[in-house]
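User: quick one, sequence for these C-alpha cells?
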C-alpha cells in the first residue's frame, strides 16, 4: 500500500508540473418518444464558465466545418478544481448525449446540479435542473433508462437516476460514496475522472486518477442499483483518467501517469485485467475517444492527439502518430459516421476541427473560439 501511494504521488507530480490536466456507446434512438429528434449535424460544447455555465451549439456542414448558432444557459455555474489550468473539471463525460431519449446532460460543478436539455437537430430546450447528489459533479453516464452522475469532492460519490418522460428522477438506493482521500492535493489530479457503463450495461466503472490510481467497478443489479461497494483494481502509477467501452466487457483506458492507452477486460466479478498497452510518447495523456477501430487520446501537456488502431478485439494497439492542436488538448468527440473529430483545447477555449482519413490520420479543417470557453470541458457530436 505504501508503494502504491508513492507511485501515485509521483504521477501526480508529473501532471502538476505539466499544469494541464464522454463518449460512450449509445443505444439506437427510439422513434415516436415525443422528446424531439436527434442532434444529427450538430456539435454541442460546454463552457464550464464559473460565472454561468453555457452550451454553445454549432451546425456541422457536410464538409465537417462548424458554424456557431446559439448559446444556451444551463441555469447553473461552472466550477474550477484547484491546480487546474486547461481543464477545470479534470474529467471526461461532463457533457453527455443520450441518443435513446434525445437528451443532453450537462454538469454544473459550481452549483452541484445537472441540467437536462431536449435535443431537436441543432436546437436545445432546457427541461430540468436537478441536484447531483453530491459536491462538484464532473461526469455523467447513461445506458438505456439509467443515468449515473459522478461527484468529485468530499471523497467522491456516484448518484443514480432513472429517466421517465424526458426527466431525471433521483433514486435514493443508488447513492454510493467512493471513499477517496478528500484532502489529497492538488484537487485536479486527486479527484475521480469519469463514470461510465461497460458496453452491456451490467457494470459501472469509475476512475480515481492519482487518488488511489485504481479502477472501481460496481456490479449492477437487474433493478439498475449498484452493489454496496466497488471492486477495486489497483494500477500503481498509471493514474487512470478516462475510458471508452470496448465491446460488451472491455475498456480502452487513457492513463495520465504512464502517458499511454491500455486495453482492459472487466470480468464478471468486477476485477479488471490489462490486455494491451501502447505509450503515446506525449505529456498528460488524459482523454480518449473512439470511432469504430480508431482511438484518439488527448495529450494536454503536449497539445497533441495520439492516434491508434485497435485490432484483435482490442488486444493489439497500433500507433498512428501524433497530430498537433491548439494549446491544452482536452475533451474530444467524433461524429457517428467517423468522418470528423472535434477537440476542445482549454488554454484559449478553442475547438479544433479535423477530418478523419481512412488510414486514421487527421487533416485540420479549422478552429473556433468558444465564447467563455477557457478551461471548458464537455463536447458531443451526435
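Assistant:
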Amino acid at each position: 500500500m505504501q508503494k502504491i501511494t508513492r507511485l501515485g504521488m509521483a504521477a501526480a507530480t508529473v501532471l502538476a508540473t505539466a499544469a494541464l490536466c464522454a463518449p460512450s456507446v449509445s443505444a439506437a434512438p427510439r422513434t415516436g418518444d415525443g422528446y424531439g429528434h436527434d442532434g444529427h449535424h450538430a456539435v454541442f460544447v460546454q463552457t464550464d464558465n464559473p460565472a454561468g455555465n453555457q452550451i454553445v451549439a454549432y451546425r456541422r456542414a457536410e464538409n465537417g466545418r462548424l458554424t456557431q448558432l446559439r448559446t444556451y444557459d444551463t441555469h447553473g455555474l461552472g466550477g474550477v478544481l484547484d491546480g487546474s489550468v486547461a481543464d477545470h473539471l479534470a474529467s471526461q463525460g461532463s457533457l453527455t448525449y443520450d441518443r435513446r431519449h434525445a437528451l443532453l446532460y450537462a454538469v454544473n460543478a459550481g452549483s452541484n446540479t445537472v441540467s437536462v436539455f431536449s435535443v431537436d437537430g441543432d436546437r436545445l430546450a432546457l427541461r430540468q435542473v436537478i441536484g447531483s447528489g453530491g459536491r462538484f459533479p464532473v461526469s455523467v453516464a447513461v445506458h438505456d433508462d439509467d443515468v449515473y452522475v459522478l461527484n468529485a469532492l468530499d471523497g467522491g460519490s456516484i448518484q443514480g437516476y432513472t429517466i421517465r418522460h424526458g426527466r431525471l428522477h433521483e433514486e435514493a438506493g443508488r447513492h454510493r460514496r467512493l471513499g477517496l482521500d478528500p484532502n489529497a492535493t492538488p484537487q485536479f489530479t486527486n479527484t475521480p475522472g469519469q463514470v461510465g457503463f461497460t458496453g452491456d450495461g451490467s457494470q459501472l466503472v469509475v476512475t480515481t486518477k492519482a487518488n488511489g490510481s485504481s479502477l472501481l467497478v460496481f456490479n449492477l443489479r437487474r433493478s439498475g442499483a449498484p452493489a454496496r461497494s466497488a471492486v477495486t483494481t489497483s494500477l500503481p502509477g498509471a493514474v487512470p483518467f478516462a475510458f471508452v467501452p470496448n465491446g460488451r466487457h472491455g475498456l480502452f483506458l487513457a492513463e495520465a501517469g504512464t502517458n499511454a492507452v491500455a486495453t482492459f477486460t472487466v470480468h464478471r466479478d468486477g476485477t479488471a485485467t490489462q490486455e494491451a498497452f501502447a505509450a503515446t510518447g506525449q505529456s498528460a495523456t488524459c482523454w480518449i475517444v473512439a470511432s469504430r477501430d480508431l482511438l484518439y487520446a488527448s495529450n494536454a501537456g503536449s497539445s497533441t492527439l495520439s492516434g491508434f488502431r485497435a485490432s484483435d478485439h482490442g488486444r493489439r494497439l497500433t500507433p498512428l502518430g501524433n497530430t498537433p492542436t491548439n494549446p491544452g488538448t482536452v475533451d474530444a468527440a467524433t461524429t457517428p459516421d467517423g468522418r470528423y473529430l472535434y477537440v476542445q483545447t482549454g488554454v484559449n477555449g478553442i475547438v479544433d476541427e479535423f477530418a478523419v482519413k481512412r488510414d486514421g490520420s487527421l487533416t485540420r479543417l479549422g478552429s473556433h473560439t468558444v465564447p467563455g470557453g477557457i478551461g471548458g470541458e464537455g463536447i458531443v457530436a451526435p
